[in-house]
Amino acid sequence: MAAAKGAAFASxxxxxxxxxxxxxxxxxxxPHSLQFPQLNPLNFKPSRTFSIRASASASxxxxxxxxxxxxxxxxSLRNAIRFLGCEIKDVQSPEDILNAKRLIFPGVGAFAPAxxxxxxKGLAEALCAYIEQDRPFLGICLGLQLLFESSEENGPVxxxxxxxxxxxxxxxxxxxxxxxxxxxxxxxxxxxQILDDIGSxxxxxxxxxxxxxxxxNKEWVSSVCNYGNEFIASVRRGNVHAVQFHPxxxxxxxxxxxxxxxxxxxxxxxVPVKGKASKLAKRVxxxxxxxxxxxxxxxxxxxxxxxxxxxxxxxxxxNLGKPVELAGQYYKDGADEVSFLNITGYRDFPLGDLPMxxxxxxxxxxxxVPLTVGGGIRDFTDGNGxxxxxxxxxxxxxxxxxxxxxxxxxxxxAAEEYLxxxxxxGKSSLEQISRVYGNQAVVVSIDPRRVYLKxxxxxxxxxxxxxxxxxxxxxxxxxxCTVNGGREGRPIGAYELAKAVEELGAGxxxxxxxxCDGQGKGFDIDLINLISDxxxxxxIASSGAGSAEHFSEVxxxxxxxxxxxxxxxxxxxxxxxxVKEHLLKEGVEVRLS
Length: 593
Fold this sequence. Notes:
Layout: H1 2-7, E1 63-66, H2 75-83, E2 87-90, H3 94-98, E3 103-107, H4 111-120, H5 123-132, E4 137-141, H6 142-145, E5 148-151, E6 157-158, E7 163-169, E8 180-188, E9 202-207, E10 209-211, E11 221-227, E12 229-237, E13 240-243, H7 251-262, E14 283-292, E15 298-301, H8 323-333, E16 337-342, H9 354-363, E17 371-374, E18 380-381, E19 387-388, H10 390-400, E20 404-407, H11 409-421, H12 429-437, E21 442-446, E22 448-453, E23 463-465, E24 476-483, E25 488-493, H13 494-504, E26 508-511, H14 525-532, E27 539-541, H15 548-557, E28 562-565, H16 567-570, H17 576-585
């Protein structure tokens, strides 16, 4: 399988940056997805007398039926299923559910709009009938939560009512960061078949809501996970399975879960290497800054304090490789996530940026860990006067293979307006996307630079005492946020921005530092402590990594949930595996691939 995993990257295509805006007509979420409506919670009580039965013309045995209702990234699951040798039949009607031989329901997004889709399309009753007949079923993430009686998310909202219990939000008051994002350990409670190859290995979770095990649902619970307290990681009754984690994003161990569901009667002799997972792991993320070079080809580049051009007479864009090939290599090397930043997105027409969408599409075919993309995610009007919402832009990225979108400049403007008016309009890109897809799908990228102070009273914004004094002996600094790739400073600090975007719906913060970018002298510990102590959502440390020791330092001295690097990986100065081996020796929980 390892050979197959890397095979596609050897012939990865060359992408030209001359994309056409013709792709703007493809927002619907793909030809197979069902229309995804606006938020409209409904109260639904499933019928127990639904009597439609599967017809004689049932689907072919080699195909699995997929219930894709048009929200979030289902492309990765499609790719994983095809990678494992199965064809896919898409649900277009309730009868397609009832005729399925095997059904996978990859719930993505928020509970209420998902139930809205199921109800309006008549799929809820068919789904209940299918499951009650004990037919092969696999629910994923929200596909597990919807089986319960109700959810507190945007609610209360009634679910399918098949499993007793209420889906509630994680409690952040006990120090847990919400959303629960990352690679965690599970504890198998009973024989589950599809979990047989997991052992003590990490699987990938990304969610803000969870179901709690109880006496009423204990006959369903097949595994649990601990995050503050125990929650249900998977359920099983007969042929019905559902998991809270994402197998399609859990690397080789996740593929083993899908393989055992798809081929229950086959000899599954390939067992992944046993790990030592015991709790939530610290993540090591590989970042690829992608932009067009002077020849028009998309390349991976890296800035020195955000300057991506070589200091030569030609002044060409620094070229460190092809994005799909590098991303594939980082997956094989053990990266816990891969992040693409389209650094020309601020001035290009986002939905006409076909090469970047193609990068996502090709990368997601063989990369089974989370993919994040940033750049150009905002409301805009094209040259013909047609308006596109940030929700449409994000939808195209999700449908192309992204699991999370990263918002930069647009989040700064939204936060400034919110701090000025104290009103949540619901119209910002941050609010729109998090409302429909859940805040776990939205990362806010903060690009600050240090402004040194002799006296913290010199500004009204939050400042800190810095470990290393400024050029004139200043002992304090505030961190000024920037937009447009660091070229324009704004009258808002990183602390104020982080607090505001959390309230507006961000699920994670990617914390850069212009002063440290490309310097290889370590992360800005002062900045990371300032922000990670101010918010209850996960913070990714970025900018400045030059050695494996810098990763252990940031995890030892701050509450960062993850650390990201680019240049040291691109230039092969410090391999990802070396970083993880070092962290393991230092007693830091990491995922072993």
